[in-house]
From TrEMBL:
Gene Ontology molecular function: FAD binding; monooxygenase activity
Keywords per UniProt: FAD, Flavoprotein, Monooxygenase, Oxidoreductase
Top-level taxonomic group: Eukaryota
Protein name: FAD/NAD(P)-binding domain-containing protein
Matching Pfam families: FAD_binding_3
InterPro entries, sorted: FAD-bd, FAD/NAD-bd_sf
PANTHER family reported for this sequence: FAD DEPENDENT OXIDOREDUCTASE DOMAIN-CONTAINING PROTEIN, MONOOXYGENASE ASQM-RELATED
Keyword flag Flavoprotein: yes
Domain (FAD-binding): residue spans on this chain: 6-338
Keyword Oxidoreductase: yes
Length: 429
């Protein structure tokens, strides 16, 4: 039986796009709606590190691994850490200081735009509807069916069996599932982009290197990352208050003056290189950015016909660099559940009802809640290391500790192989 299910995915971010692709290649029809006017309506921000286990597995299942390899930047996997005075305490490019544990390997960088383009181009023509800003999800007004209507800014779409909210931090689908809203993470500051850094300031470009470059002071940081388009994205973040950007007295509409005032007020003791990553940023790409998160361990009671994935389900701060990876693992997990359910239950049912969808979606949610909680805890640990009284020293100590633990585990594994091997020989003999 061909699927008469009506599935809507709200949001064409990495999570929604990956889910749509995975459903479509398994002949499960869905429509994806996004508020943006088209794929180029907004610049897509910095790059993302795509982990071997989670995100890359999702890309493989999407059948897009070759295309991913063509845009992935393995050279971007290196990290540098500076003290505010300019002392380089760690440089994976030149082996200064302790490298990160091996668990950080296999995480090439990809520009958001390239990832998004690759996924968009893989979808069935017409299945991605731009210019659809969701205002609300409504239950069937007659109360006779478990179907949902989607109220967009300019139109109504009706009769969905499953609505998946992949609409990011401020999800409109989330309202129907839980009262929980994102909370301020305690971290705020600015988001800045410096285009063509090789031309604008070659020395600064060299300082950043090919990957991530952190300048870590006491609870105050400049976090920079090279993008594939020759730009460097920097975040001037520190511990602050939710309304800091409104109350700090900086006039954000006058960007050159805002850049001067911001670095003068908050980056006393940081050397010129660190400050220049903010001061030399493009005037049309420098703005305040408070960081939000959902509570660690956020979960909800399942509601038939609705679910969330990606940031809509478990918004985290970016300090463990896992957000998109968890999002894509969600997409793979939900698509796998729906695919198996369709083959084993829906296609075989004599009288199929969308109530049958409860089981696979609930199974996805249970698996996702536990996984997201693990990543959210890791994220909190890294937040405290990025914004630490002792600056980068604390981060380097953590890496050294994790490396030592990794070595201990390797040793223990080698010993257990030695113990097992003689008995195997004995059995074979
Ligand atoms: C500064 C920063 C740096 C980060 N760095 C990293 C990193 O290095 N590594 C990493 O793994 N993660 C990182 N993240 C996190 C990562 O960006 C997110 O986890 C990831 O983008 C989540 O994908 P998503 O598809 O769930 O949501 P999003 O990417 O937010 O996509 C949501 C989509 O929904 C659409 N939408 C929103 N509202 C509506 C509506 N009402 N109607 C219709 N459409 C709507 C939006 O237009 C958008 O296309 C970072 C985040 C930030 C803020």
């Amino acid at each position: 039986m061909s699927s008469p299910l009506k599935i809507a995915i709200i949001g064409a971010g990495p999570a929604g796009l990956a889910l749509a692709r995975l459903l479509q290649i398994n002949n499960i029809t869905c429509t994806i709606y996004d508020l943006e006017a088209d794929r180029n309506a907004r610049t897509q921000g910095g790059c993302l590190d795509m982990h071997e286990g989670a995100a890359q597995q999702c890309i493989r299942e999407c059948g897009l691994y070759e295309q991913f390899l063509a845009v992935a930047r393995t050279e971007g996997e290196v990290l540098k850490i500076y003290e505010p005075n300019g002392t380089l305490v760690m440089d994976e490019g030149s082996d200064i200081g302790e490298r990160r544990p091996d668990s950080f390997k296999g995480r090439p960088e990809v520009d958001r735009k390239q990832l998004r383009t690759m996924l968009i181009d893989s979808l069935y023509p017409g299945s991605l509807q731009w210019g659809h800003k969701l205002k609300a999800v409504k239950t069937d007004p007659t109360g006779r069916t478990e179907k949902y209507d989607l109220q967009f800014e300019n139109k109504l779409e009706t009769g969905f069996d499953l609505v998946v909210g992949a609409d990011g931090a401020w999800s409109k689908v989330r309202h129907l599932i839980t009262d929980v809203r994102p909370q301020f993470s305690g971290i705020t500051g600015v988001d800045a982009k410096l285009s063509n850094i090789d031309i604008v300031d070659p020395a600064l470009s060299k300082r950043v290197g090919q990957g991530m470059c952190l300048t870590l002071g006491a609870n105050t940081t400049v976090l920079s990352q090279r993008n594939g388009d020759g730009s460097v994205k920097s975040y001037g973040f520190f511990r602050g208050t939710e309304d800091w950007h409104k109350n700090c007295g900086i006039d954000w509409s006058n960007v050159p003056a805002a850049k001067e005032e911001f670095t003068r007020k908050y980056y006393d003791g940081f050397n010129d290189d660190a400050k220049n990553l903010l001061l030399k940023a493009d005037n049309d790409d420098f703005h305040p950015r408070p960081m939000w998160m959902l509570p660690v361990g956020h979960r909800w009671a399942h509601r038939q016909g609705l679910t969330l994935l990606g940031d809509a389900a478990h918004l985290m701060t970016p300090f463990a660099g896992v957000g998109v990876n968890v999002a894509m693992e969600d997409a793979l997990s939900l698509a796998t559940q729906i695919k198996q359910w369709k083959q084993n239950v829906w296609d075989k049912a004599t009288n199929p009802s969308s109530a049958l969808l409860i089981e696979p979606v609930r199974a996805y949610e249970e698996e996702m809640f536990a996984r997201a909680e693990r990543y959210a805890n890791e994220t909190m640990m890294y937040l405290d290391l990025f914004f630490h009284e002792r600056g980068g020293v604390a981060m380097c100590e953590q890496f050294a500790k994790a490396k030592a633990e990794e070595k201990e585990k390797e040793k223990a594994a080698a010993v257990s192989v030695e113990v097992i091997e003689p008995s195997l020989v004995a059995v074979e003999a």
